[in-house]
Amino acid sequence: MKKFNLFKEIIVVAKSDFLYALNSAKRFAITYEGKIVFEPFAPDLISIYEGSVTPNSPLSTNLSRPLSAMMGDNYRVVEDDERILIKASGAWQSIIGFNHLRALYDDTTGDGIAEFSDKALEDIGWHATEFNIGYRDIVEQFEEQCEGVLLCIEQEEPYQFSGLGFVFDLEHARRIGFEYCAAAIKGKIANDDDFATLSDDEEEAAEFFKAL
């Protein structure tokens, strides 16, 4: 997965597209790749801005207020000839709200990852916890092996991280998650004394992963 760190990334939008969206008075989104799309939004949208702006007069002839103010105080917007350059890290809380329901997993709190939005992966994650395999363990496999985006803010000193994970191929992620958990559980049953005798829930989970 590609890490898209909003502390470091600058989103580049074509100025003509940006002005068109502003003048339309329609609700639009700006993707992390700098594309502008209009409602209805696709379920795989990854956005850094969603909203609508109604200028006081047509922007094409009379810019009533600077473009830097159009998206609100949490975005840093700079005009560069025919491009609009956007720094969006200050709008992170709004960006979480835009994307929360579309993300596969939410790693934006200190509590860690609690669930997957995909039911098949949630079944995998839920059963895996019986063998002390956490959601973070599974997510690390996605981040190493799957195509997708980890939309985040991350800085080193003082360390701060908050992120939303998006996987482009769910079938691949399901296979990666299942195979990882199955192998780990087989190893625990064979080598870990804590699982020499299985509880009913552990046995159910082992059967789910075909580990018996």
Description:
- The chain is α+β, with helices and mostly antiparallel strands.
- The chain has two domains: 9-97, no CATH class; 104-208, no CATH class.
- It is 33% helix and 23% strand.
- It has helices spanning 15-24, 92-99, 119-128, 135-145, 170-191, 200-208; strands spanning 2-5, 11-14, 28-31, 36-38, 47-51, 76-80, 83-87, 105-107, 148-155, 160-167.
- Strands 1-9-10-8 form a four-stranded mixed β-sheet, with helices on both faces. It has a three-stranded antiparallel β-sheet with strand order 2-7-6. Strands 4-3-5 form a three-stranded antiparallel β-sheet.
- It starts with a strand and ends with a helix.
Return residue spans where pLDDT drops below 50 for at least 5 consecutive residues. Answer: 57-63
**Strands ordered across the widest β-sheet:** 1-9-10-8
Note the gap between the termini.
32 Å
Q: What's the total helix number?
A: 6
Mean pLDDT, as a whole number?
92
Fill in the keyword field for this structure.
6 helices; three-stranded antiparallel beta sheet; 212 residues; elongated
In short:
The chain has helices at 15-24, 92-99, 119-128, 135-145, 170-191, 200-208; strands at 2-5, 11-14, 28-31, 36-38, 47-51, 76-80, 83-87, 105-107, 148-155, 160-167.
